[in-house]
Every structure is written in C-alpha cells, then in structure tokens.
Amino acid sequence: MFKMARVVIPTLVILVLALSACQPQTPVDEPTEEVPTQAATEAPTQAATLPPEADVIRIGGFGPLSAPGAYRSGIEMQQAAKMAADEINAAGGVLGKQVELIFGDTEGLPERGTAVTERLITQNKVVGLIGEYHSGVALTEMEVAHKYGIPVVFSEPWSDDVTGSGYPEIFRISPSIDYYSSIASKYYAEAGFNKIVFIQEDTDYGHSSGDSITAQLAGYGITDVQNFYADPATEDFTPILQRIMQDPPDLLASGVTGMGTYRMVRQACELGLAPTATTAIYAADAQLPEYWENVGDCGQYALFTYVGLPPSLYNDKTRAFLDNFEAQYEIRPGAHAMEAYDSMYLMVEAIRTAGSTDPAAIIAALEAIEYDGVLGKIWFEYGSQNPVPSDVPAWMWHQFPTPSVYLMQYTEVNQPFEEAIVVFPREVSTGPLYTGPQP
After folding, report:
1. Which domains does the chain have, with CATH numbers?
2. Range scoring the smallest mean pLDDT among 47-56, 75-84, 308-317, 322-331
3. 250-272: average pLDDT
C-alpha cells in the first residue's frame, strides 16, 4: 500500500511545531512498517483541507520515511523541505499562489521510488520534484520523471548515473560518487595508506563506488586495493572480516550505508581488526546521530566523509536555517537536510524566474539559476546551452560543480559531530592528518 505524507501549507504564518513524533523511537536496526510523521498523522481528510487546485502550486518530495531506508535522514529532509515551503508561503508564495508540498515515503526501496514518483506526477499533479537520499532509488525515480518531463532537483543521491544520464529534467546539488571518491582518494594517498580493503554494498551505488575509487587510487600509485561486496542488510560481517584479518590492511573502509556500516565497525572492533595502531577504519554515515548509539566505544578513531559545510564554513543562511530547524524540530539537522531545504528553494525560485509552472520553462530557469543558499552559491555549469565537453565527465550535466566534501575524524568516544576534526583538505583542516590508537 502506497503511503503518502501530505503537507498543506498555511498562508500567513510559519508553524513552529515540536515534532517529537517524527523522531522514531524504535532502534535503527529494527524494521518498521512506517515511521509516523506530523504531516501523516495530523492531516485531516483531503476533501476538508485541500485548497482548489488552481490556488496552489504543488511540489513533490520523496525519500525514506520508514525502514529499511535511512529513515531518520529522510524525515529530516522532509522537515527541511516543509520548513522552506512554510517560509516561502509566509513571504507570499510564488506567482501569487501558495506552495503545497506532498512528500512520499520510498522506504529506501527502488520499486517504491518508482511507485511514489508515478503517483506524485499522475495523481497529485506536482510540477516539480525534490529530495531523495538513496542512489538506487533515485535511479528509478528519474526514469519516471523523464517519462513525464517533470523537473527534479535531487538533494542527496551520489550515483554518477543520476546526472550522467543526460536527462534534461534531472539536476543534482549533492556530489557524484566520482567527485566524492576523489576527495577520499587524495586523502588516502597523502595519509600514506598503501594497502586498502573496502567493504561496499552490493548495489549499483556500491559497485560504482568501488570501481571509481579503485581507479582513482591507481592514479596515485596505490594498487593494493580490494573490494568486498555485501548486502546492505547484512547483520554478520564476521566471515568477510575474518578473511581480511589474515592480511590486515593499512585501512579498512566501509562503503555500506546506514546500519550495515555500524554493524561492520562494531564487529571489526570486537575482532581486534580495526581500529588498531596499524589499521585505520573508515565508516560511511558516521556523521549521523545514530552512529554512536550503535557502535559505542568502537566508534573512536573512525574516519568519515562529510558532505555539507563544517561549522567553520557556515554562512548567515546556514546559521539561521540550523537555528530555526532546531527550534521547530528539537534536533540539529545533518547536511542532507540542508540539501533538501536548498532544493526546495531552488525549485520555487526557478518557477518564479520562469513565470510559469510549465516544465520546460522551469528546466530552462534551473539551467540559468544562481542561488545563494545554506550550502553557499549553487549553480549548474553544464546544460543545454553549455553542453558537457568531451574531456569532462558525463555526470557534470546539470551538476552543482563545487559541492562541499570533507574528510573528518572522531578522536574521542561520543564526540559530537561538530567537534570532530577536519583532516582533509589540509587548507581547511583543524587537526592532524590522522590520529590512531597507540601501540
């Protein structure tokens, strides 16, 4: 059964809601049917609340609001997009109309992404789409959007194929996996990690990641690289880890997202594989609040990549967004929420510039947009008027060219993300290149 969270935005005021119901109380690794959200549980019946269609401009959002997807991140993205819509409506809306956000739960499943997108476009009649956390889901959503010609600003998926498709409707403000991996590859080379083992998720995203970083490391002369692939839902990584223990690497890196990486980190630690004085550990999604809840003391010394602005680089909009989000939802949001917030503003600003909700006009406006958001200045370098050159990666089509990507490290147990050390790039680092356990 398809679940759709409908948010009807009021005209004159910004609601300040304590959305404690939006923060799931079940442990992250326990599947749930759906994590309730304020929008889903409090919205009255459609007939009683929906304004006439001509009086609103409907924008669709999608992302994981329930397991097995990264639902805490998805909920934050939904909340951030709603906050942006509230602010836009309080300022008078766009084209003389209010904005209505309709957010669908994809559960982190590709087939659900297809169904959600189809329904948003054909039944809810949205004029644009924003959001998504998982690359595998985005790859199905973009096919539906392309079929109907509806513009999408993807907030968080990293697969090169998202913008590498060259579809006119598809834009992205998060990094591609190739760009993301290049930052890590440069760091691994500079840190002197010569033997590296990756545990990747057995998905399109995981294989793309493995291929990309292996090729990049070879460019730095690092060829002793091995990739293992595992189902993201794997609970016991011990068989893989025991094989790796026979010849421990300089770096053990998990590219599995969500609970998978937390299980791997804890199990590697308990086996005595990593982190040690000779083997460093890298953990995907270590920046999320549930990291410490699931790894405990084993989380110390983990390296991780952060997409977004570290506190030292916040601008006025960043600080205002974070403060307002925390006041409304009683939690400090992650970079994925910043991306969803900026995506909503980008879509509305494109509609305003186009002077129309015609998809082709919105796409043209997005190609030409320059927007100062919480992530800094956002624009799309290549598009129909400036095609991607043959010597530039295909994923640069409709791609924000300079997303913020940093390597960070926890050096203390239960260290807040805001206090983690920025280790790379060195020009903005706040601590040593690497800190490990003593022999």
Report:
1. 4-176+315-396 (3.40.50.2300), 178-307+405-428 (3.40.50.2300)
2. 47-56
3. 94
Instruction: Answer whether 342's CB lies under 8 Å from 375's CB.
Output: yes
Paired strand residues for 379: 370
CA angle 32, 285, 277 (to 5 degrees): 130
User: Whose structure tokens read 């010569």?
Assistant: 194
In DSSP terms, 98 is beta-bridged to: 56
Q: Tell whether the model's pLDDT for residue 6 goes beyond 90.
A: no
DSSP letter (8 states) at residue 306: E
What is the side-by-side strand order in the sheet with 98-105? 4-7, 98-105, 56-63, 128-131, 152-154, 170-172
CA angle 159, 160, 161 (to 5 degrees): 90
d(CA 135, CA 287): 18
- Which residues, 6 or more positions from 146, have their beta carbon under 8 angstroms from its beta carbon? 165, 167, 169, 170
CA dist., res. 106 & res. 111, Å (int): 8
User: Which residue type does 434 have?
Assistant: Y
Contacts of 208 (CB under 8 A, 6+ apart): 159, 160, 161, 177
Asked if 65 contacts 5 with a C-beta cutoff of 8 angstroms, the reply is: yes
Closest listed residue to residue 211, CA positions, set 241, 181, 189? 181
d(CA 142, CA 154): 9
Alpha-carbon distance of 283 to 305, in angstroms, equals 8
Place of tokens 């040690």: 276
With cut-offs at 50, 70 and 90, classify the pLDDT of residue 59.
Answer: very high
* 248 or 37, higher pLDDT: 248
Helices 204-219, 177-191: axis angle to 10 degrees equals 40
Q: How far is CA 103 from the centre of its chain?
A: 16
Q: Which of 102, 85, 103 is nearest to 94 (CA)?
A: 85
Residue 178: left (phi > 0), alpha (psi -120 to 50), or beta?
alpha
Q: Please give the Cα distance from 332 to 330 (Å, whole number).
A: 7
Residue predicted with more confidence, 13 or 304: 304
